[in-house]
Amino acid sequence: MKRAILVLIGTIVIIQAAAVDLLAIPAFARKYQMTCKTCHTPFPKLKAYGDEFAGNGFVIKDKDAPRYYVDTGDSFLSLLREVPIALRMEGFFTYNNADTKQWDFTSPYVLKILSGGEITENIAYYFYFFFSERGEVAGIEDAFLMFNDLFGSDLDFYIGQFQVSDPLFKRELRLTFEDYQVYRARPGESSIDLTYDRGVMFTYGFPSGTDFTLEVLNGSGIGEANVFRNFDDDKYKNFVFRVSQDLGDHFRVGGLSYLGKEEKEGIGNSLWMLGADGTIRAKPFELNLQYVARRDGNPHFAVSTLVPSENVKTGGGFAELVYLPKGDDSKWYLTGLYNWVNSDLDELDYSSATVHYGRMLRRNIRATAEFTYVFDSIYKDHGRLALGLITGF
After folding, report:
1. Which of 15, 114, 262, 298 lies at a CB distance of 3.0 to 4.6 Å from 309, suitable for a disulfide?
2. Would you give the DSSP letter of residue 206?
3. Using CA atoms, how far apart are residues 367 and 20, in angstroms rounded to an integer?
């Protein structure tokens, strides 16, 4: 492990020396001919302006995209001149992943194609397809249509598949190799967590800085359709309600409630989740906090006449601190992440501390060095080193 730490320090020095100062233009930046830092800092992390851009259906209200539609002579047809396309590729060089005590070329770890944009006024789409995720063709994850400003109000409507936790903190946009573990926790044989699911989402924002979100979900993840060509494995729908409130320019607090039920072979599991989250912005720092408590009534789907049902308590969260020394113009940054999950089921217990350094080689090429120490998991305590290159173009 001492050698791994020395390699980490040496890599930071090399990355710092190799950095250059140029811009790049991926999909939305190509459309509007703007730099990526308009919405990201550093990519893929979204700034407040980036969140607003996405919430407007990937449209900058006061800036028309030049030559975006084909003029067919039919004013009732909205036909994109070019379909916006972007690519993202990530590769890592890791040591001791999952306590294997091995060096590994974990590359490409992610290779995906992304597309999104406005189809017509107030109607947009977004999706990405994994050519490869950890060596397998993973298929489609995010894929939805968005109807913006319904009825002339600030009500937005999404239908498709997305991450349940997107209104909280977006896993796909995190800076670290280490994940937000509490979002992935699934007790027993439950199919429900706070990652991907299919359904609809309504969002509404008030001028006071209050945002409401309602999600209605299958509760079955995004696996294949069953023999009946249904994606939902049971007759139930699950509900998520989310509220977030800005407190001035530097603070935000939020709350989450999840009420659900699932069934397998006629046996049910009822569950609920309650969460609290917050963000503190005091340049050059940003602190993100998340806590989720979960209760499952029968996550092993035990037949009560044969095996007693088991109430399972699970709780956890994370704290993430991002340091950007020059704000939007930072060419390097530091991130600290602490994860913890505690459950009645030992296999879910997890806690880790991560230190992550990133350097922008281009606006859309990021070199990273990350060390994570896992204090508690199904594996014994261990450290993990990950050196990476993340690109978007």
Report:
1. 298
2. -
3. 12
Output the six-digit token pair for 49. Answer: 């302006």
Q: Using one digit for the tens of pLDDT, what is the confidence trace for 52-91? A: 666 666 666 666 555 567 878 887 887 877 788 888 899 9
CATH topology of domain 2-67+80-111+177-193+238-392: Porin (2.40.160)
Does residue 284 or residue 68 have the better pLDDT?
284
User: 3-state class of 175 per DSSP?
Assistant: coil
- Give the other-Cβ count within 10 Å of 385's Cβ: 23
Contacts of residues 231-236 at CB distance under 8 Å and 24 or more positions apart, as own/partner, are 231/198, 232/198, 233/191, 233/262, 233/263, 233/264, 234/261, 234/262, 234/263, 234/264, 235/263, 236/260, 236/261, 236/262, 236/263
Q: What distance in Å separates the CA atoms of residue 161 and residue 180, rounded to the nearest whole number? A: 19
**DSSP category for residue 65:** P
Query: Which residue, among 79, 216, 199, has the nearest Cα to 145 in the 3D structure?
Result: 199
pLDDT of 14 reads 37
Q: Give residues with Cβ within 8 angstroms of 74, minimum separation 6.
A: none
pTM of the model as a whole: 0.86
> How far is Cα 164 from Cα 204, in angstroms, rounded to an integer?
16
H or E stretch at 8:
helix 2-18
Instruction: Enumerate helices (H) and strands (E) in the chain, giving the number of each.
Output: 3, 16
Share of residues in the chain with pLDDT > 70 (%): 82
| Cβ atoms within 10 Å of 105's Cβ, excluding its own | 10
pLDDT per residue as tens digits for the range 210-260: 999 999 999 999 999 999 999 998 999 999 999 999 999 899 999 999 999
Tens digits of per-residue pLDDT, 328-362? Answer: 889 999 999 999 999 999 999 999 999 999 999 98
Q: Please, are residues 181 and 316 in contact by the beta-carbon 8 Å criterion?
A: yes
326: nearest Cα among 21, 33, 49, 15: 21
